[in-house]
Structures are given as C-alpha cells and as structure tokens.
Amino acid sequence: MEAGAQLDGRRALITGGASGIGLATARELRRQGARVLIVDRREPPTDLEATWARADVGDPQAWERVAERARAELGGLDLAFLNAGVASARASIIEIDDAEYRRVMGSNADGVFYGVRALVPLLAPDGGGAIVATSSLAGLLAFSPDPVYTMAKHAVVGLVRALAKQLAEQSITINAVCPGVVDTPILTDSMRAGVVAEGFPLMQPSAIVAAVLALFQTSETGGAWVCQPGREPERYRHRGVPGPAGHERPPDVLSGI
C-alpha cells in the first residue's frame, strides 16, 4: 500500500467510533491533526475531542441527518470509515428470527450502503476523497458460527468491488479492511476463550489502524485487505471466474476489480 498526503486538517467521519477499531482510528486521526465526526449510538470518550452524532447506521433517514451534520460541522468530508458492526452468535438458521436478521444486516451491510450513498456527495465536490469499510475474514471465508454476519460481510466486499470503478470517476477510492480476530466488544467471552484455546493470537484494535490510515492515502481502490497478526496488510486476490466456452474470462462488462 502506497501512502500519500498527510492527514493534518483532513475531515473524517467514523461510524462505530465510540469503541474498538473505530475509536482507535479516531484517536490516531486526532493525533495527526484530523477533524473527526463520530457516528455511533453511544457517546465517545470526552477526551477524544471529536464531534458526535447519535445515529443508527441502518436507518436511511438517520444518514440524511448525519450528512447535514458533516456539512455544518466540518464543511464537507475528505475521509469516511464505515466501521460499525455487530455479531449474531446464532449459528442455527431456524433460530435466527426476523428482528435478529435485520439487526445484523442493518449495522453491517445497510450501514455501509446507506453511508456511501449519503457521503459521496460530500466527498466529490472538494476533489474526491477516500472511503474505507470494515469487512472481516468472514467476508472472504465461510464462518459457520455466524452465517448472517458472514453474509453481511461478504456483501461489504462485493459492494466495495462493484463501486470502485464509478467512484474512481469522481476521484474517490473505496477499499475494505478484512481483519482476523480483533479484541473488541463484538467478540463474546466464549468466542475469545475459543480463539485463545486454539492458540490463535488476538489482535488489538490499534493493529488495524495503520491499515485504515494507509487506505485513506493510497491510490489503490476496490480492494479487500486482509489484516492478520504479524503480517503486513495484504490485498486479497479473488480467483478469476471462468468465461463461457471458448473464452478465457467473462465479458468486460461483468469483470470486477
């Protein structure tokens, strides 16, 4: 990942910024001189010195208010980190009721779609910017303990890849970070114990911050970046899809980034 301009003075919005990866990213952006708007149901720590908008990211009407707040407080945006997410921890498809399904999809998938739709008009007029969305290894692999979370995180990767070309025309990059197991509130005690018992290292939220900030400053777009302990962030290379008989690949109109 190539780094670009410094972050001093940049205007950034972070969903799920009151805790975990979002809060760690907000702290580093503030340290580097960025102005930050936190979007979360909970108030962030007061020592963060960031603007806060209480909102449910799965509510499209809430995004109208968030966009207006960004205009009023920051005068627009340069960076957006669509990071809010929740887990279900229900594996059985017959035990996942409609309310639970909507809760997980609303935060993890709808929050990214509505966020991009609302924020692109704020990024484009000032010469573009960068969007980073939080997916997960569950957005690239089959995570059977939580199928709805897996579905939502796959959706984030698909949306990022599909939007890259059209947003590039507006000088906006869009990428997804796909962390391994991070010690955040989304991780239940039983999940944490299971990971530790199997000998896998837990990452701290701060370990993902460097990847997010690098993606804010890179010219690469449409990527799903795997973040694992002890490794540099690595762009996941999706296997080429076979084309029709007699063709090595699908037509360009169906090809992705």
Quaternary form: single chain
Number of helices: 6
Could you describe the largest sheet, including whether it forms a barrel?
8 strands, mixed
User: What order do the SSEs take from the amino end to the carboxyl end, as H and E?
Assistant: EHEEHEHEHEHHEE
**Strands ordered across the widest β-sheet:** 3-2-1-4-5-6-7-8
Rg computed from alpha carbons, rounded to a whole number of angstroms: 18 Å
Quote the distance from N terminus to C terminus.
16 Å
Number of strands: 8
Strand content: 15-25%
Low-confidence stretches: none
Structure class: alpha/beta
Q: What is the typical, i.e. mean, pLDDT?
A: 91
The percent range for helix content is 25-40%
Principal-axes geometry comes out as globular
